[in-house]
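User: Hi! I'm working on a homework problem where we have to compare a predicted structure to a textbook description. Could you give me the structure for the chain below?
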Amino acid sequence: MPEVKPEMTASDRYDIAIIGAGPAGMAAAVIASARGASVILLDDKPRSGGQIYRNVDASPLDKPQVLGPDYLRGAELTAAFAACSARYLPATQVWHLGDNGEILCSRNGATLRLTARQILVATGAMERPFPIPGWQLPGVMSAGSAQVMLKSDGLVHDNPVFAGTGPLLYLIVAQYLRLGVPVAAVVDTTPLANYFSAMRYALGAVREPAMLLKGVGLLNEIRKAGVPVYRGAQGLEVIGNQSASGLRFQSGGQQHEIVAEQVFLHQGVIPNLNFTRALGLEQHWNPGQLCWQPALDQWGQSSVAVISVAGDASGIVGADAAERNGRLSALNMLARLEKISLAERDQQASADLQALASLNAFRPFVDQLYRPLDSHRIPDNPDTVVCRCEEKTLGQLRAGFEMGAREPNQLKSLTRCGMGPCQGRMCGHTVSELLAKWRDEPVENVGYYRLRSPMRLLRLAEMSNFTELSARDALVDTLATEVKP
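Assistant: Happy to help. Predicted structure tokens:
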């Protein structure tokens, strides 16, 4: 007869489970484990670091310093995480979080289940959709994806066009140039009016002079390299039939076409919402960042008692602020677990709270300066693809609206928009803003897709191979002990 395992007890639960090994998740793990909490960190990447510090301690590049000092600084955090006592499971895809502390995930073809008294969601950000004609063609990808290839495998593409706006776009262009990779052009969509409107936040911006100088330095680096830069670009359209062959746009009152087999698009990042939405956390629309984000207090505590959110999953804050968010959330969870007092929490949090006040004052300047054009977020060409998974166009969605679909879930049911493998990640915000436009109402009145577990595609074989993880057990052979990088 098969062995009957005893019922799990309270001591089998982890004190804290963290989802995501970026700056927020690693910083939280270091703080919480140092205070004696049983901590497990689950991450879908093979190594810790998240996107910003991806492969910082195992770069495929001969000279990783070309990626910049901010990237190299991540090695300190990954080393601290490697030295802490938190249990670490990389290459693990979490697909269910419960408001009772239950976590289900897939690893090595098996389903793992564990429970935790507190859960920290630190799943980071994703790039904002850029629904322009032709963005679905082979050869078109996000600039962030280009950076993933660079950091993961040292892969680059010669003579690409980089198009869009924001610090990340300029950083990736500069990284390409430092490696000696030719860039066909930078098509900058930042409107001139944004420079003037951002000035009302200038007092907050000057509190972080290093951040301002960093941005100016990237722009100067691109200029000195002689890369053609087209400013104030509008009306972007990817040229091509079966694959991308270039980019068409207007700039300086003229129509331009640039020949390129690779087009990298970027117009900022937004929180990765799928876990916080599936958990039913209270959400609100951030008009400054033009995105949905969970409603949280200064400690990252959500509307669900056992769930906290930190880093860019809580709202776009940047790597430095994400690390501080992670420490604050860890301190608060330790206090909730009665491992430290509230007074101790507040005392240890003082420096991070003060630094965040300065970073938060700087953020509105960046958000306003790099605010993407309405026409690049809310398409108006009926043939533009909105849902790339299901290949649904704006015209098809408009037909669904005319048939009576007034909110995202109704539109999803009528058109299948949002039903693909990405589960609405690449069309959710666009759909919310389209419906707000068509209804002539604020986006917050429209809402977002209703999401449920599982948060990824599953095979029946995974479900049949089931393992229970306990905080009292050592790693079993089937999981294989991982050395934290």
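For your comparison, note the following. The mean pLDDT is 93. The CA atoms of residues 387 and 417 lie 6 Å apart. Good luck with the assignment!
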